[in-house]
Amino acid sequence: MSRTSSQWHLVARYQSRHNEVYRSPQREQPLRPVELLGRPWEKVAMDIFHYKRNDYLVIIDYYSRWIEIKQLTSLTSDCVSSRVKTVFSTHGIPDVVVSDNGRQFVSDEFRKFAKSWCFAQHTKNPYSPQENGMAERAVQTAKRLLDLDEPEIGLLNYHASPHSAIGVSPAVALIGRELATLLPVVREQLSPRQHRDGDIRNSDQRAKTTYKRCYDRPHGVRKLPPLQNGEPVLLKLDGEKQWSTPSTVFRSDPQNRSYVVKTGAGICYRRNRKHMQGVPNVLPPVPNNELMIRTFRLRIQAKSCRRTVQVMKSCRRTIPVMQSSCQWTFPPD
């Protein structure tokens, strides 16, 4: 008996829906290194982290890799803004501040602070730490420094040591001179000196190219096609293991891999492209006049270890199986 006469195309439809919901996660996208801007402290990244029962704010300069670590007495926007003002009063106001979507950085208080101090604020997509990799790396460095008996000495040595990515120390790249540490040094080396901007940029480019190659190859990255406004997608929300949230692209920014999607309940989420799956073409709907039994009854026979699958009242099929009794049910249309 052919599959068309026994309604097996309905089984294929169910399998198509199952594969759509339980598709594998998206592959990682190719890493996109951030190019250096024109001068030191022009663009900085910041993040908040918790370590050993304390909260800290870390700020890092994209150009020089200079790091500032400030302990927070509270996680309010006012406290964070106060610590940021302390750092900016020393090194100047940057043009761009990059952060995640923490409530301290997206609050009205911090936005007013950014407007009054005349710097642009860029936030990255939630659950995409690679987009704010500079701040994530600074958090790791800060935690290692806080593990030391004297974190202040460790931070001083970090600022005075040549950085592997730029070839010179953060102090030379930012303020144009070496810092005096507890190690003996010739005094002439502490005099102000000009660094070569081209050497720093070339060293930074080589380091980022190497890191990109080491990241892309083992992760099997691939470029994902951009999505258009109004395109239906499946979204995997926090804690979900399935692509089970039908949504529609509300606003798209393919250049930054940033999309705002709206669910059927009217809730908007901002996510990276890898958090969404395009909806493939599915089989046509089943006509109403076609009857179907929505439950597969499995019966194990002791001798032949076979089961009877009842698809329609007029059709029975016997298929080998090596499972115990169970029951399968189609999802509602």
From TrEMBL:
One of its GO terms (biological process) is DNA integration. InterPro entries: Integrase_cat-core (IPR001584), Retrovirus_Pol_polyprotein (IPR050951), RNaseH-like_sf (IPR012337), RNaseH_sf (IPR036397). Residues 36-200 form the Integrase catalytic domain. One of its GO terms (molecular function) is nucleic acid binding. This is Integrase catalytic domain-containing protein. The lineage of its organism: Eukaryota, Metazoa, Spiralia, Lophotrochozoa, Annelida.
